[in-house]
Amino acid sequence: MDDKKRLSISQVSEITGYKTHVIRFYEKEFDLVIPRNKSGHRCFTYKEVETLKYIKQLQEKGLTNSQIKVILKTPEVMLEGNDEVKEIAVAGTSVIGQDYSQQRMQEFIKKYSDEIREGLMGVSENLKDLTDEIRAKDKDVLICENAKLKMDMKRKAYEVAELKEQLKREKNRKKTLLGKLFYK
Hints:
It is a single chain. The protein is mostly helical. It has helices spanning 9-16, 20-29, 46-60, 65-78, 83-94, 99-175, 177-182. α5 (83-94) packs across α6 (99-175). Mean pLDDT is 79; it is low at 76-81 and 90-99.
């Protein structure tokens, strides 16, 4: 495909295998900059078509849209001082059609997608550990609060028993002869 040639969204749909509404969605989802003509219609170049093909390759490898976003933005973030990433990023954006660069891109994707998955697994495990720890702490707090409430209930039960005993003594005093004389 010639760099200067412009394609319509329906032509790109045929080339990539994506439906037109999916292409429009991916334009927003992946922050793709699609040139437009004077009428405001999308006019795709080689670069945009190759980007969509690249997205399709990544999806076929099982990557999620979030992971693909990271990979699409990776060259901008990781280019400084990393010759391997720079070489792969340049190869991927300028000469994707060559077998060498495709192989290098696949190696890059495989290498970093495994690291991303491992990182996500580690985050998932840490999250599980933190959740378990929080639940254990919450359980300890509830057990302590429960013990305090039980102690309060016992204390109140003793107070009630003591008051009942005092009331009983008071009633008995009124029943005695001296009680009748003094408490009328």
